[in-house]
Amino acid sequence: MRTLASRTATATAKFTETINLVQADTESIAKTMQAILPNVEESVSSSNEVTEMLTNIRAGSDETLARIREVSHSAEEQNKATQSLAEHVEEISNMVKETAEAISSSRKSMGDLDKLAIELHESVSYFKV
Question: Could you tell me which residue ranges the Methyl-accepting transducer domain spans (predicted)?
Fold first, then answer.
């Protein structure tokens, strides 16, 4: 019985020692975690700030992209209007050319008519008594 009591006492002492070591380790871990906690909180805060910055950058990028698309669309519309204007100017230029040719032709016809009028006048004056 003494042996059993001695073994029980030894086992109890070892068990108590183990529990004390676990408690000491747990206390040490708890202190370390308490010491790290401000760093973790600061990291979380920094992470939130970075997330907000990235969100702002994304919003700015989206807005810039929308403006670039607007400018591109406006440039396309202006290009179409410029092309249409150039076509109309070309049509007007052709009309002016045709009008100039018609005026030139009319001038020639008037010259021919003038000659005929002179010839007719001479012919009529030949028959005057």
Answer: 1-93
> Amino acid identity, residue 35?
A
How high is the mean pLDDT in each 10-residue block of the chain (129 residues)? 76 86 89 88 93 96 96 96 96 96 94 91 75
Quote the CA–CA distance of 36 and 67 in Å, as a whole number: 46
Rounded-to-integer distance, Cα 71 and Cα 64, Å: 10
Backbone φ and ψ for 118, nearest 5 degrees, come out as -65, -45
Distances (CA, A) of 98 to 81, 87, 95, 105: 25, 16, 5, 10
Backbone angles phi, psi at 50, to 5 degrees: -65, -40
